[in-house]
Amino acid sequence: MFKGVRPILYGGREVWPLIEGGKGVAATNHASSGAWAAAGGIGTVSAVNADSYDPDGKIIPQVYRALTRRDRHEELIQYAIEGAVEQVKRAFEIAGGRGAININVLWEMGGAQRILHGVLEKTRGMVAGVTCGAGMPYKLSEIAASYGVSYLPIVSSGRAFSALWKRAYSKAAEWLAGVVYEDPWLAGGHNGLSNAEDPKVPQDPYPRVKLLRETMRSGGISDDVPIIMAGGVWFLRDWNDWIDNPELGQIVFQFGTRPLLTQESPIPQGWKDHLTTLNPGDVLLHRFSPTGFYSSAVRNPFLRNLEARSERQIAFSMEAAGDHQYQLDVGVKGKNFWVTLGDLNRAREWYGHGFTTALKTPDNTLVFETPEETKIIRKDQADCMGCLSQCGFSSWADTEGNSTGRLADPRSFCIQKTLQDIAHGGPIDENLMFAGHAAYKFKQDPFYSNGFVPTVKQLVDRILTGD
């Protein structure tokens, strides 16, 4: 029998222990997060390149006119601040004094600290807390505390939190409102798998969260400071053993995937429709993201294309050595690329199928692509606007020289371009479509039968029943 959950005190008021996950680049906006707060929960505005509006209420396309990456990066930061401020104000109005509004930022997004300062400065009294992951956000506590705002770091292990606590967070302990444990095998978007963990061998979250709580206790953090379980959360009844469990302390639940399919959700109809067709295994944990992190997305033709590109890959050496005794004679022009006999034959076969351009990667390999795809890759790399602190795809870095010092990697993609496109009605087969690994439950859950799409309020009410 489902125990049920009780309200918690957050941001000075009682709220349901239910958080809407903040999904970057316009997959969560004022309409969804304001409605979530109005239903008594904690809504989360994504402050990752959020949309702004013209006087008629139409979305302003984020067009970059500057000629240099550095100047385009400045345009990006202005878009990001203006958009997030607009989203927060609108969400706060919709909430009408109920629930609470958080914002979500990615620490590894380009200009993250400047954007966070810019947004919090202009939304004083509206934002209850900042959730932040994708990296090790050491300065998060200092920035949030300077505006009198709570912070909720997103981690995937007790060890990661321990490092953050010892180095920075213990100095602003009173503003720590919770710690988000994001399951790296189940959550959508970018995932915090460490090199010691096997992406193909998921671990039970319970012992990991128990260890996180023990780590928090050793730092003197009260059990009243909640751990927010994120990733794989669908039915609350599945987490019955976690509720009121003295080993775990206060637990709050974050929903990332389920709020995608609501009437207020800003994602386009095609994306919503596709979510209801997914089967187990249709979401892939992959390494193609230009961030260098693992991430989880629907295995659509866009992702399959990246998988296939990486499979058309061979190692090379600049001189004949070891097994590399055969000079490559396809895809390259007049350069000494030495490969194995087997790889030479594979390259010739790919060439015969139209993959006639060999592109160098940072790992001394070549990937074979069509001339048409190669043009797109080169243009996307040239159009970089510095949306990440470090980008493997374009070699941009948020540093003085604006370079990672590594070759741009053609096995990746421009994440800003594809996320903006799919969020604003672009083809769902040609873009990255983030989703958590439980997305197949849309097809199985009777709540969504006969094409039913709930309002956010109906979804929150349903979740509170245990279903």
TrEMBL record:
The keyword Cytoplasm does not apply. It comes from Sphingomonas montanisoli. Keywords: Monooxygenase, Oxidoreductase. This is Nitronate monooxygenase. The keyword Endoplasmic reticulum does not apply. InterPro entries: Aldolase_TIM (IPR013785). It comes from the Bacteria. One of its GO terms (molecular function) is monooxygenase activity.
